[in-house]
Specification:
- 60% of the residues lie in helices and 11% in strands.
- By secondary structure, it is an alpha+beta fold.
- The chain folds into four domains: 120 residues, no CATH class; 136 residues, Reverse transcriptase/Diguanylate cyclase domain (Alpha-Beta Plaits), CATH 3.30.70; 158 residues, no CATH class; 62 residues, Arc Repressor Mutant, subunit A, CATH 1.10.10.60.
- The strands form two sheets. The chain has a five-stranded antiparallel beta sheet.
- The protein has 21 helices and ten strands.
Amino acid sequence: MDERRCEIRPFQVLDAKLQPIIGSAGVIGAEELKQLTDVKPTPESDAQGVIASAALDREWLFYRKSALTEWTYISAISRSQMAKQSAGIGWLAFYACIAVLFCMTIVSFLMTRKLYVPVRKLYESVRKRETRHERTYDELGTIAEEFLSLRYAEEHLSHQMNSQSVQLRDLFLIELIQGKLQEREIEQKITRCGLSSDWKQLCVMVVDIDTLEETRYNERDYHLLLYGIGNMIQEIIPRNRMYHLFSFQHMIVVILRFDDSSKDCFLKLLFEDAKHIQKQAGRYLQLEISIGLSRIFLAMSRCADAYIESVEALKYRMRVGGSALLYIEDLEPSHSQPPTRVEEHKRELTQAIKSGDETTAKAALHLLLNDLAEGSRTHRDDRLALLLVIMDIARDVLGSSEAALQFATEGKSLQDTIMELKTAKETEYWFIRHVLTPLGRRYEERLTRQYQTISADVIRLIEAHYDQPVSLEFCSAHLHYSPDYIKRVFRKETGISFSDYVAHYRLKLAKEWLAYTEMSVSQIAERLQYSNIQNFSRYFRKMETITPSEYRSRFQSPND
């Protein structure tokens, strides 16, 4: 055993009067005893402390005076020994700190590696998305930038989705009012577009600007004005009555709903909202607008009929003037429909104009004017009905009812011109001269331009794909017209059939290749889509009276 560990330190025990009881002699001197005399323990705890020995210059005296017996226990230790023990304790603490630091370093390294794995995976995935792959040491910054980029992309995509959802709703409702959807499709698209299916009554409102004349606006402002009026409508009509609003054919179409079954209450609110809309448009935009209201209906499938009713109601503003609020039931009997024969003769007249059949067109016009006169109550009604028919025919033939406004004469408006017509004979003569003939001419010009465009596109396809199986079906897939229509238009415009044109164009190429290239006859035949060289030679001989080889020899002959 180590001798230093077996060494007994000097000690001494003193009684209450500081008389030695037991211990080593000479441990404490008089000076130390004097200091101990002043030490008094408290009743609750012992008194203890350290005294530097005066007798032994290199020792420290550690004492403890008992509160119970007032005995004093003294232990002496040399300063060098205490310094040595303190140094050992210091080294032990140092080594312990080193060990703890090493362990903490290992643990920190392992924990850091474990925590860094997801960060590294994120960084690697970010680097795969980047176009540049150089290494960066700010990995967290790179990840943060990518997250910001993804967040921006998400917001942008969300904005696009919201805007497109509005466009999809508009498209669905436009198809609905055009009568293009079946009832089952309507239910499916209502759910798909996120529209409400909770209503008890519905109504279609159509809002139209009366005129831009004598206002501060022009035609370029029309769509912007419709947008402004649409915003006004959305602010005026409460959300619980607004089903959807969209623009169609230079008008604003509003589908309104009501959650109560009271028709009178619904109509009262409709008229109040309509009057408020007209008032706000006049106040803020200085515009006169007319509003047409359809009959109240229950099923969404009746939207097409309701739209027609609201548009028909707007047509009556010619009788009542601008800023009109027109409800279809106030203008027509509940079950009134346009005379069947009028619609039939109008379709016949439209078809005759498109086909260029002047005789049939005049016959249909004569019958149409007779039917209009029989179905109208007054001369004014007759003329207004004629005006509507002209606008409908112009829209069907030229695609726009605005074209009818050009049929006016002597600088007067079309309406004034029609109102001044007095007899049926005069009306028929005016219609033939100022409507029928110009309309047919303009349709023919439009058709000619269309034919020229189609024929030019077909020729471009043939010249670009001559080395492929070019057919009418091939052109139909590219131009989105039926093969029969392309065939008819091409022959009418070029004076030659489609197949003959293809054959002639390939023959032209064959002659050029025979004359100016070293391609063999079989290579030319294969490239020009002939099944074999015999067919090619046979067609070439038929058209040129000589074989391809003879043509090449003759063309390349020095005596030629």
